[in-house]
Amino acid sequence: AAALPVVINTWAFRTAAETAWRVLESGGSELDAVEKGCSQCEIDQCDGSVGYGGSPDESGETTLDAMIMDGNTMEVGAVADLRRVKNAIGVARKVIEYTKHTLLVGESASLFAVRMGFPYEDLTTQKSLSLYSEWLNQNCQPNYWKNVVPDSSKSCGPYKRREEVTYREEHTSSQRSVHNHDTIGMVVIGVSGTVASGTSTNGAIHKLPGRVGDSPIAGAGSYADSTAGGAAATGDGDIMMRFLPSYQAVEYMRMGTDPTVACQKVISRIQKYAPKFFGAIICANTTGSYGAACNKIPGFTQFHFMVSSPLLSRPTEQV
Ligand code: SD4
């Protein structure tokens, strides 16, 4: 069954769903709903993987990626590798509103945030410090390097290119549990069929400094087009961003594909190249039909997401 408006978001992030729904109820725009909904997760540090205090990189710093997309104008505002500013999607919204750019990165994105009135704050917490020191104590297990071996003269990195050493070793595979990075992605379709989408994340734990994932990339982390629908992705962004999964899901829906099937097709395309990738996608079309799919791997056979619509009295968790 379909009805508008509809708000869907990745994972069981209930406070985000409730906030977005309340924004729509009080007359806010679809973009407002996406921004405030995702901001709620940044405040709540949803799962430790959105907002400050999560996913320290190899230098111990938490950096944020976020985007927001207006499906009417096809404008996008995004920030990547944002440092010392907590409200990443708020800054992304300013990129749409006050600039002709799409994506600002790193220290310069932080400077832009300050010009827009956001305060500098420390994104480090006890939690992120302990994640970081745990990793240091485990000899800096390289989560995201390949074709390297540890330099045995150093306890922690740098790594040597494999060609430089006399023995071969399979590339270091990431040992992380499938659930340690769970971006919020949200799609809002208003009563008139206006689509907005957005994401916010602190990325991937122990990433190389400077790493940017799928979340702030249009068509990867999310996509919105008021002539078709919207989609948002979560999971192993380094892999997923190569396939523009959110763009692909929206294009399937444009051709009339059912949203659930659209999500499944997107997942199986990625799966051909990366059978064990961790990831999921949600999407909804302009009639209010929605769907989701995940790559079923050990430890991740069900994907939880939130849906709010007039047919569901309050935000409802679905699998
Ligand atoms: C990233 N896609 O930076 C994000 C992380 C995520 O569920 O979504 N985890 O790769």
Written description of the protein model:
- It is globular, with a radius of gyration of 19 Å.
- Helix 7 (245-254) crosses helix 8 (259-273).
- The chain has helices at residues 14-25, 30-44, 88-98, 106-115, 126-137, 237-240, 245-254, 259-273; strands at 6-10, 64-70, 75-82, 103-105, 148-150, 159-161, 184-189, 195-201, 222-225, 229-235, 279-285, 290-294, 305-309, 312-318.
- Residues 165-177 have low confidence and may be disordered.
- With 319 residues, it is an alpha+beta fold.
- The strands form three sheets. The protein has an eight-stranded mixed β-sheet with strand order 4-3-2-8-7-1-13-14. Strands 9-10-11-12 form a four-stranded antiparallel β-sheet, covered by helices on one side. The protein has a two-stranded antiparallel ribbon with strand order 5-6.
- The protein binds N-hydroxy-L-asparagine.
- Residues 49, 65, 181-183, 201, 203-204, 213-215, 234-237 line the site of N-hydroxy-L-asparagine.
Compact overview of the structure:
This protein is of the alpha+beta class and 319 residues long.
What is the strand and helix layout of this fold?
Elements: E1 6-10, H1 14-25, H2 30-44, E2 64-70, E3 75-82, H3 88-98, E4 103-105, H4 106-115, H5 126-137, E5 148-150, E6 159-161, E7 184-189, E8 195-201, E9 222-225, E10 229-235, H6 237-240, H7 245-254, H8 259-273, E11 279-285, E12 290-294, E13 305-309, E14 312-318
Helix pairs in contact: 1-2, 2-3, 7-8
Bound molecules: N-hydroxy-L-asparagine.
